[in-house]
Structure formats: structure tokens, C-alpha cells
Input
Amino acid sequence: MSRDVVMIRMTTRWVLPLVFTVYMPSCVPPAVRPTMPAGQARMEELWEVSADLPTRDLFYGPWGAENAPSPDATYSLIGLKVHTEPRGRFRLTDKSIEHVGQWSWQQNPFVGMRPYQGLLVILTMFNSSDIKNENNALYEVKKHGEGVGHWYVVRDLGTALGETGRLAPQRGDPEIFEREPFITSVTGGFVQFNYHGWHQELLKQITPEDVGWASEWLGRLSERQWCDAFHAGGYEPAIADRFITRLRQKIAEGERFGETTAASMAPARCQPYYGVATHR
Output
């Protein structure tokens, strides 16, 4: 046996346990429970009914074009994120909101409530493997017209639109995303998802009604809004078409499980929207 083979085997023997020690969370999942009675939770801090959903700008977002990063400005690099594509990403800094920490998927005021369940459903639709607490941001809202004290935000979907997994899953791959199933079955009144990422304990109590509720809301987005969202994410029209078409199929599947009105499964065509002015 050559010295190189011996070294490879010794490296594998010692490095792999170290990798799993670093990346594997506790084998005992945290208890999933609300931190207060449902009647005391301020649902508007997580979700509000969107009466203006059909007119929402998904290219510039809720703060509009005037707060978009200027292509003529000079920016300073403050750090690199592992596995990030060679492009910039920006988060708004505004005096009316202050990032004060993170919030826990397992223990928060909204566990078990329909919008919380629906948020998890939407993340599984996108095949997000980023369902972890460090990607959740808690903001203190200082000047909000309706008096909301905090916002609970999920602000990272980087590991999505591919396969789900725990260690370096393939992401942003339309071929994988198109062939990955969404729902595998309903057992004991709860939906079983084709999800292989971390914190699967969060998905154990999701009902067909939860899936139908989330699917119905997503189904209200127009083709223009879907295309604007993927355009803002830097996707070419042909690639955006494939992702959006598969998402539409999942939405329709979810609505069938929840016995709600089925959304359109028509293939997306984003090119016409990319060719028009994005300034509203």
C-alpha cells in the first residue's frame, strides 16, 4: 500500500468526524412551542393581510426605486460570505428600523399559527435549506404608522431553488428544482414533504389546510410580479421561466391538497417583462 493511500485514509478518518462535529447540530431537536398564549401574540409583527398584493413591486421592493443601491455610488467591501456568487447583495439601512438580534424558529410567539405554518410551507416550496435561526432577523420598529414594535423577518434564501440537504446541497439549479418532488404524502392528518435539510422537526405538524392557505396566497401573484422578483435576483429570463413554472406547479399541487382554488400552471414567459422599463 502506497504512502499516499495511507495518508488519504488517515485524513478521511480524522477529518470527517471533525466536519460532522462542526456542521451537525444537536441530535435532540429543540422543543417546538410558542412562547406565549396565541391570544397575546401580535400577528402583525410576522404577517399582515395584503390588500394591495396585486400591485406590490417585487423588483424594487416596499421601499421603492429611490432606496435602491445606486450604480454610480462607491461601496466598501465589509466581508465575504462562503459559497456566494460573484455579485453584490444589499440590505436596506433605515433609521426607522433597527436590527436587534435573531429569532428562533422553534420558540417564538407564532408557533402553530397559520401564517407561521404557511411561511414554512413557502420555504419548502422554494427548496430552501436555509431554515435556521441565524438567518432570522428581529427588527425593532421605531416609526411605524400602525404602532408595530417588532418585525420578525426571514432574510436569507441563498441555499434554495435546487435540492434540499444538510451539507452543501446543490442550489440555483433549474434541472434539479424541476425534478424534485414537493409533497410525498399525508400521514395522520399531517403533510410529509420531500425535505432533507436541517430542522425537520419544524415540518411535522403542518396540515393540508396550512399548505392550501400558503398556496392560495402565492397563487395571487401575477406573472409580472414573479418575473420582477427573479429579475431582481439576477436570473436570466429563460432560467426564471423554468423556476417560476415549477413553482406554479407546486402552488397548484398545494391548493389541491388544501382543497382551495387551483392556480394557473401555465409556463412562465418573463422575456416581455425584462424588456420593459423597471422604473414604476
The first strand starts at residue 33 and ends at 34. The CA atoms of residues 118 and 214 lie 5 Å apart. The two ends are 69 Å apart (CA to CA).
